[in-house]
Amino acid sequence: MPVLLPVLLLVSALLSWALTNAVRRYAIARAILDIPNRRSSHNVPTPLGGGLAIAVSGLGGITMSAVLGWVPMRVAIGLVGGGVLVAAVGLVDERRGVPASIRITVHALATAWALYFLGGMPKVTILGDILAVGWPGTAVAVVGLVWATNLYNFMDGIDGLAGTEAVSIGLIAGLLLFFGQQSGLATIALFIVAASSGFLVWNWAPAKIFMGDGGAGLLGFLFGALAVASENAHSVPATTWVLLLGVFVFDATLTLVRRVLQGERWYNAHRSHAYQRATQAGWSHRAVTTAVVFINVGLGLLAWVGQVWPGALAWTYAVAAIGLVGVYRRIGQVPPMKEQSGTPTGIARQSAKL
User: Fold this and answer.
1) Which residues share a beta bridge with 123?
2) Are the C-beta atoms of 121 and 115 separated by less than 8 Å?
3) Using an 8 Å Cβ cutoff, are 203 and 211 in contact?
4) pLDDT by residue (tens digit) across 197-218?
5) Is residue 64 classed exposed, middle or buried when 0-12, 13-18 and 19+ CB atoms within 10 A define those classes?
6) How distant is the alpha carbon of residue 111 from its chain centre?
7) Which phi and psi (to 5°) does residue 187 adopt?
8) Average pLDDT, stretch 137-166?
9) Which one, 19, 105, 163, 352, has the greatest CB density within 10 A?
10) 161-195: per-residue pLDDT in tens?
11) Distance between CA 241 and CA 228 in Å, rounded?
């Protein structure tokens, strides 16, 4: 590990912390607030736009690492170029609103950019065996990256959850990549951790600012692109990344499928994700987020077992799937709140604590 790396990681975290505070003050002054309604998990108008700090510090750190030769230049160009597009459309959407069709188009362009510089995904590792899949593998990667970008945004619904997920998964993935002889990709993961940590200081419950679409979409995109890069580098397989991000992938995907099968308008805002049902059942935002961290540690241990003993991969995936299904079913017994418009009671506090 380069001697200068810890210093730059600390600078990235401090920059993210300072920028988040600056964005928070600006958002309050310009009334750029997330106003609660009956689909919200908060009841106080809260500043938006904290994702800008994550984008500047995180993408800046990745760029600096490439300039210093710690990260392959093509990987950095792919992630930073695509990341700028995702963050930009998210930030504009927070301020002015962007049609879903345009957002998805920009996400697809960002994904195409990243995959071009990453070399697509012509091979995929399945249970320890490397399979040549050609262009269909790249096509699947396009869908996967666009979905990763959006599912992370769907899961950014309570205080601290998305930021804590980025910190915990980034640390676990960084360790796996480092021991997988991919110190460059591990460095990228650590800069995601640093940028998210600085923001998380302000976003931990009770949140003083939200990351918004720009930050959440960016984190999902970066993790998805890292999965492709590490797959191509024959380090941590893309399927292991799905395991690591199991909480977010499982909750977002199953909730979407369930809503579609029930004939609901899946693109409408709602409160039927498992983490939202947990808060409706009386769990605090801190408790839900802390529980997710413990689950992530368990998933990380399973991923490590799969890396050390490839023959156990099938068992690790099975154990993870059974565990996540059990948690989802248990929480799913709580009925989701009806989707109605309006403002919840108790909003009279307004922005007194902003």
Assistant:
1) 132
2) yes
3) yes
4) 999 999 998 999 999 999 999 9
5) middle
6) 15
7) -65, -40
8) 94
9) 163
10) 999 999 999 999 999 999 988 999 999 999 999 99
11) 9
Structure-token match 């460059």, residue found: 184
Query: In angstroms, what CA-CA distances link 197 with 10, 213, 215, 331?
Result: 10, 18, 13, 28
State residue 334's pLDDT score. Answer: 58
How far are the Cα atoms of 1, 122, 167, 177 from residue 181, in angstroms, in the given order? 11, 21, 21, 6
Non-local CB neighbours of 322 within 8 Å, separated by 6+ positions? none
Q: Which residues pair with 34 in a beta bridge?
A: 46
- What average pLDDT score do residues 306-325 get? 89
* Angle formed by the axes of helices 246-261 and 313-331, nearest 10°: 50
CA-to-CA distance for 151 and 160, rounded, in angstroms?
A: 16
What percentage of the chain exceeds 90 in pLDDT? 67
Quick one: tokens of 341? 């418009």
Report which of 166, 170, 173 is spatially closest to residue 200, judged by C-alpha positions.
166
- Is the pLDDT confidence value at 345 over 50? no
Do 125 and 231 touch, CB atoms closer than 8 A? Answer: yes
Q: Supply φ then ψ for residue 34, to 5 degrees.
A: -90, 105
Cβ atoms of 216 and 156 within 8 Å: the answer is: yes
Closest C-alpha to 226, from 199, 195, 192: 192
Look up residue 28 and give its two tokens.
């309050």
How many whole angstroms separate alpha carbon 320 and alpha carbon 299?
7
